[in-house]
Design goal:
The chain contains 11 helices and 5 strands, in the order E-E-E-E-E-H-H-H-H-H-H-H-H-H-H-H. By secondary structure, the protein is α+β, with helices and mostly antiparallel strands. Strands 1, 2, 3, 4 and 5 form a 5-stranded antiparallel beta sheet that branches. Strand 2 and strand 3 form a beta hairpin.
Length: about 260
Amino acid sequence: MHSVHKHTYFEIIFILKGKGLHNINGNTFRYEEGDVFLLGPEDFHDFEIENLTEFCFIRFNELFNKNHTAEKDSPWQQIRKALLYTSSQSRGSIVQDKAEKQKLHSLLTILEGEYENHQTQYFDMIRDSLMQGMMVILARNLLGQTRTKPVLKDSVEPVLLYVRQHIYNPAELTMEHLAEVFNYAPAYISIFFKKQTGESLKQYIIKHKIKLIEARLLYSQLSLSEIANEFGYTDESHFCKQFRKYTGSTPTEFRKMDVA
């Protein structure tokens, strides 16, 4: 058994061998050798292993994709949206075709080999190119699926997806608006979410936003006011106060601690 846990990053999971069950956000899927899963920040999942299983995990944050999608209408923008904002968690393994699985696993093998030379001047370029190749194949398969596996009626996954899609727009994440989108009473959607995840919807939204902000502070040169504006805060003071409440440090202190 691989215990239930959440992430603060995106994760591509390769099944190198073995079989069993993969529980993702309330949905259960069978997995076997060759399968590939994609999970996002705050998705919760666990594995029920039937046969000895070997995994390989590739982890990255949202900025990896954002840094490669500078042009608004570039093909990379479409790939980024497909991977980060399409409901992949309700589909199980993204890739079904054997040949497509082999391509991804071949790229993985090359990537693993290149890590042996990670100190060379070419490593970052090769790594990024291999990762981009994987993402194109994943996006192609995700967008090309016309039939999806059924989603449980009471699955919380659509709510999690909606939150990730609209995390930069607070007006889209009020209880009233969410209740309207999902056709629930405002009080019920909060109860439903907490029953499924163990935490309140409001807390989940704030914590997910804080995790993304932490990534901005660590991996970007954006000013505090720029980050506050990006995430829909009305002013920098409110942004700093909420960040400190949930992390124990101000954004400036958090940035300095990483440098130290």
